[in-house]
Amino acid sequence: MTDRTLTSAWTDTLRGRPEPGAVAERRRRTRARDIDAFTAISGDRNPLHYDADLASASVFGRLIVQGGVTSGLLNALVAEDLPGPGTVFLAVEWSFVRAVGVGEMLTARAEVLSVRDDKPICTLATTILNEAREPVLTGRATTYTVPLRRTATQEGNFDDA
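Structure (tokenized):
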């Protein structure tokens, strides 16, 4: 393949082709209102998220946020940071290895493991750590980055940013 072939799949993405080994992190503290917001979206009303007495008597010993609140930090990371704007998940394989309580500071991390040359597709190692730097979520994700620069230019919606 020529250099042009290697980069052409990524040419019209807003951030360009990421390199294997590239890393991004994003931090966020969980809040009680995250539980309500996720319930409004998903309908998940598990008592472990709402009933403090029941949750404190459970194996978790406290109210916990939904897994979607935890993994949602990775949605922001791939769409905003690495690979960046226009990126969506094609596949994920995640293990939720620790529960996350309200008020915990989480750090999401993605590392580029591989980058396809023919399409703007990456494989990422994904991890979310709690404040004690213990993993709460581990796994991999495959992402696709939509070539927004071409779309924006063709439709006249965005500058050549």
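DSSP finds six helices and five strands in the chain. Confidence is low (pLDDT under 50) at residues 1-6.
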